[in-house]
Amino acid sequence: xxxxxxxxxxxxxxxxxxxxxxxxxxxxxxxxxxxxxxxxxxxxxxxxxxxxxxxxxxxxxxxxxxxxxxxxxxxxxxxxxxxxxxxxxxxxxxxxxxxxxxxxxxxxxxxxxxxxxxxxxxxxxxxxxxxxxxxxxxxxxxxxxxxxxxxxxxxxxxxxxxxxxxxxxxxxxxxxxxxxxxxxxxxxxxxxxxxxxxxx
Length: 200
Ligand code: GRF
Prior knowledge:
This protein has six helices and seven strands, in the order βαβαβαβαβαββα. It is α/β, with parallel strands linked by helices. The relative contact order is 0.16.
Protein backbone atom coordinates (compact mmCIF):
# COMPACT_ATOMS: atom_id res chain seq x y z
CA UNK A 1 0.00 0.00 0.00
CA UNK A 2 1.17 3.53 -0.70
CA UNK A 3 0.11 6.64 1.20
CA UNK A 4 -3.47 6.40 -0.05
CA UNK A 5 -6.00 4.91 2.34
CA UNK A 6 -6.27 1.12 2.15
CA UNK A 7 -9.33 0.03 0.24
CA UNK A 8 -11.84 -2.49 1.56
CA UNK A 9 -14.23 -4.66 -0.42
CA UNK A 10 -17.17 -5.94 1.63
CA UNK A 11 -19.30 -8.99 0.75
CA UNK A 12 -22.57 -9.66 2.57
CA UNK A 13 -25.92 -11.34 2.09
CA UNK A 14 -28.11 -9.66 4.70
CA UNK A 15 -28.71 -6.63 6.85
CA UNK A 16 -25.12 -5.46 6.87
CA UNK A 17 -24.90 -4.29 10.48
CA UNK A 18 -21.23 -5.33 10.47
CA UNK A 19 -20.69 -3.36 7.27
CA UNK A 20 -22.28 -0.41 9.07
CA UNK A 21 -19.92 -0.80 12.02
CA UNK A 22 -16.98 -0.71 9.60
CA UNK A 23 -18.28 2.48 7.99
CA UNK A 24 -18.93 3.98 11.44
CA UNK A 25 -15.36 3.20 12.53
CA UNK A 26 -14.10 4.92 9.38
CA UNK A 27 -16.23 7.98 10.21
CA UNK A 28 -14.94 7.94 13.79
CA UNK A 29 -11.34 7.85 12.54
CA UNK A 30 -10.51 4.63 14.37
CA UNK A 31 -10.23 2.72 11.07
CA UNK A 32 -8.12 4.50 8.50
CA UNK A 33 -9.48 2.95 5.33
CA UNK A 34 -12.19 3.42 2.76
CA UNK A 35 -14.89 1.10 1.51
CA UNK A 36 -14.30 0.78 -2.24
CA UNK A 37 -17.18 -1.55 -3.11
CA UNK A 38 -19.92 -3.64 -1.49
CA UNK A 39 -21.15 -6.81 -3.19
CA UNK A 40 -24.07 -9.08 -2.36
CA UNK A 41 -25.45 -12.33 -3.73
CA UNK A 42 -28.90 -11.15 -2.56
CA UNK A 43 -30.32 -8.28 -4.62
CA UNK A 44 -32.67 -7.33 -1.74
CA UNK A 45 -30.01 -7.30 0.98
CA UNK A 46 -30.03 -4.11 3.03
CA UNK A 47 -26.22 -4.12 2.98
CA UNK A 48 -26.48 -2.85 -0.62
CA UNK A 49 -28.73 0.00 0.46
CA UNK A 50 -26.29 0.99 3.22
CA UNK A 51 -23.56 1.27 0.56
CA UNK A 52 -25.74 3.23 -1.87
CA UNK A 53 -26.70 5.69 0.86
CA UNK A 54 -23.01 6.55 1.21
CA UNK A 55 -22.35 6.68 -2.53
CA UNK A 56 -20.28 3.50 -2.38
CA UNK A 57 -20.51 1.25 -5.47
CA UNK A 58 -22.98 -1.56 -4.67
CA UNK A 59 -23.02 -4.57 -6.94
CA UNK A 60 -25.17 -7.71 -7.11
CA UNK A 61 -23.32 -11.00 -7.62
CA UNK A 62 -24.94 -13.18 -10.27
CA UNK A 63 -24.83 -16.70 -8.81
CA UNK A 64 -26.51 -18.21 -11.90
CA UNK A 65 -29.64 -19.20 -10.00
CA UNK A 66 -27.82 -21.42 -7.50
CA UNK A 67 -29.28 -21.16 -3.98
CA UNK A 68 -26.14 -21.70 -1.95
CA UNK A 69 -23.34 -22.59 -4.37
CA UNK A 70 -20.88 -19.87 -5.36
CA UNK A 71 -20.11 -20.83 -8.97
CA UNK A 72 -16.56 -20.42 -10.21
CA UNK A 73 -17.60 -17.92 -12.92
CA UNK A 74 -19.29 -15.79 -10.25
CA UNK A 75 -16.20 -15.90 -8.04
CA UNK A 76 -14.10 -14.80 -11.01
CA UNK A 77 -16.48 -11.87 -11.61
CA UNK A 78 -16.26 -10.87 -7.96
CA UNK A 79 -12.45 -11.05 -8.03
CA UNK A 80 -12.41 -8.89 -11.16
CA UNK A 81 -14.74 -6.31 -9.59
CA UNK A 82 -12.68 -6.16 -6.39
CA UNK A 83 -9.43 -5.78 -8.36
CA UNK A 84 -10.99 -3.14 -10.62
CA UNK A 85 -11.89 -1.14 -7.50
CA UNK A 86 -8.33 -1.39 -6.16
CA UNK A 87 -9.33 -3.44 -3.11
CA UNK A 88 -6.52 -4.32 -0.66
CA UNK A 89 -8.54 -6.35 1.84
CA UNK A 90 -11.78 -8.28 1.38
CA UNK A 91 -14.12 -8.42 4.39
CA UNK A 92 -16.89 -11.01 4.50
CA UNK A 93 -19.71 -9.62 6.61
CA UNK A 94 -22.56 -12.09 6.80
CA UNK A 95 -21.77 -13.52 3.37
CA UNK A 96 -23.61 -16.84 3.08
CA UNK A 97 -21.59 -18.64 0.39
CA UNK A 98 -18.30 -20.47 0.71
CA UNK A 99 -15.45 -18.58 -0.92
CA UNK A 100 -13.18 -20.82 -2.94
CA UNK A 101 -10.76 -20.56 -5.82
CA UNK A 102 -10.42 -18.43 -7.93
CA UNK A 103 -11.43 -15.70 -5.47
CA UNK A 104 -9.00 -16.99 -2.82
CA UNK A 105 -6.18 -16.98 -5.36
CA UNK A 106 -6.87 -13.37 -6.33
CA UNK A 107 -6.53 -12.21 -2.69
CA UNK A 108 -4.10 -14.53 -0.90
CA UNK A 109 -4.22 -13.93 2.88
CA UNK A 110 -6.36 -10.88 2.14
CA UNK A 111 -9.86 -12.19 2.82
CA UNK A 112 -11.22 -12.14 6.35
CA UNK A 113 -14.53 -13.17 7.88
CA UNK A 114 -16.51 -12.61 11.05
CA UNK A 115 -18.10 -15.68 12.59
CA UNK A 116 -20.64 -15.61 15.45
CA UNK A 117 -18.95 -18.14 17.76
CA UNK A 118 -15.61 -18.80 19.41
CA UNK A 119 -13.98 -20.84 16.66
CA UNK A 120 -13.08 -23.66 16.41
CA UNK A 121 -16.33 -24.20 18.34
CA UNK A 122 -19.53 -24.09 16.30
CA UNK A 123 -18.41 -23.54 12.72
CA UNK A 124 -21.06 -23.34 10.01
CA UNK A 125 -24.56 -21.95 9.95
CA UNK A 126 -26.46 -20.30 12.84
CA UNK A 127 -23.59 -20.74 15.26
CA UNK A 128 -25.55 -18.87 17.94
CA UNK A 129 -28.33 -21.48 17.78
CA UNK A 130 -25.74 -24.26 17.87
CA UNK A 131 -24.30 -22.76 21.09
CA UNK A 132 -27.73 -22.57 22.77
CA UNK A 133 -28.60 -26.12 21.70
CA UNK A 134 -25.27 -27.44 23.01
CA UNK A 135 -25.84 -25.82 26.42
CA UNK A 136 -22.64 -23.76 26.13
CA UNK A 137 -22.09 -21.28 28.97
CA UNK A 138 -19.94 -18.99 26.84
CA UNK A 139 -19.82 -18.01 23.19
CA UNK A 140 -18.74 -14.96 21.23
CA UNK A 141 -17.34 -14.05 17.86
CA UNK A 142 -14.18 -14.61 15.85
CA UNK A 143 -12.48 -12.72 13.05
CA UNK A 144 -10.34 -15.04 10.96
CA UNK A 145 -8.58 -15.29 7.64
CA UNK A 146 -10.51 -17.25 5.04
CA UNK A 147 -8.98 -20.42 3.66
CA UNK A 148 -10.59 -23.21 1.68
CA UNK A 149 -12.20 -24.82 4.72
CA UNK A 150 -15.40 -23.81 6.46
CA UNK A 151 -14.52 -21.23 9.17
CA UNK A 152 -11.06 -22.79 9.57
CA UNK A 153 -8.50 -20.08 8.70
CA UNK A 154 -6.01 -18.48 11.12
CA UNK A 155 -7.68 -16.45 13.84
CA UNK A 156 -7.07 -12.69 14.11
CA UNK A 157 -9.08 -12.11 17.28
CA UNK A 158 -12.09 -13.07 19.37
CA UNK A 159 -14.56 -11.51 21.80
CA UNK A 160 -16.42 -13.52 24.42
CA UNK A 161 -19.97 -13.23 25.73
CA UNK A 162 -21.80 -15.29 28.35
CA UNK A 163 -24.66 -17.56 27.35
CA UNK A 164 -27.39 -16.96 29.91
CA UNK A 165 -29.68 -19.74 31.19
CA UNK A 166 -32.78 -18.20 29.57
CA UNK A 167 -31.12 -17.27 26.28
CA UNK A 168 -32.88 -17.99 23.02
CA UNK A 169 -30.87 -18.20 19.80
CA UNK A 170 -32.06 -14.67 19.02
CA UNK A 171 -31.10 -13.13 22.37
CA UNK A 172 -27.67 -14.73 22.21
CA UNK A 173 -27.14 -13.55 18.64
CA UNK A 174 -28.07 -10.00 19.65
CA UNK A 175 -25.48 -10.10 22.47
CA UNK A 176 -22.85 -11.50 20.10
CA UNK A 177 -23.57 -8.82 17.50
CA UNK A 178 -22.81 -6.05 20.00
CA UNK A 179 -19.31 -7.50 20.29
CA UNK A 180 -19.00 -8.14 16.56
CA UNK A 181 -19.51 -4.47 15.84
CA UNK A 182 -16.50 -3.59 18.04
CA UNK A 183 -14.30 -6.55 17.12
CA UNK A 184 -14.53 -6.44 13.34
CA UNK A 185 -13.29 -2.87 12.78
CA UNK A 186 -10.46 -3.44 15.29
CA UNK A 187 -9.39 -6.65 13.55
CA UNK A 188 -9.49 -4.94 10.16
CA UNK A 189 -6.94 -2.47 11.55
CA UNK A 190 -4.81 -5.46 12.58
CA UNK A 191 -5.20 -7.21 9.21
CA UNK A 192 -4.24 -4.04 7.34
CA UNK A 193 -1.08 -3.79 9.42
CA UNK A 194 -0.12 -7.24 8.09
CA UNK A 195 -0.58 -6.26 4.45
CA UNK A 196 2.43 -5.40 2.38
CA UNK A 197 2.34 -3.65 -1.01
CA UNK A 198 0.98 -5.76 -3.84
CA UNK A 199 3.81 -6.16 -6.42
CA UNK A 200 2.97 -4.33 -9.67
C1 GRF B 1 -23.21 -11.92 11.80
O1 GRF B 1 -23.66 -12.48 12.99
C2 GRF B 1 -21.94 -12.58 11.34
O2 GRF B 1 -21.14 -13.02 12.38
C3 GRF B 1 -22.46 -13.74 10.55
O3 GRF B 1 -23.61 -13.27 9.90
C4 GRF B 1 -24.17 -12.19 10.64
C5 GRF B 1 -24.29 -11.02 9.70
O4 GRF B 1 -24.97 -9.94 10.27
N1 GRF B 1 -21.44 -14.25 9.67
P1 GRF B 1 -25.01 -8.51 9.56
O5 GRF B 1 -25.54 -8.72 8.15
O6 GRF B 1 -23.63 -7.95 9.57
O7 GRF B 1 -25.96 -7.72 10.37
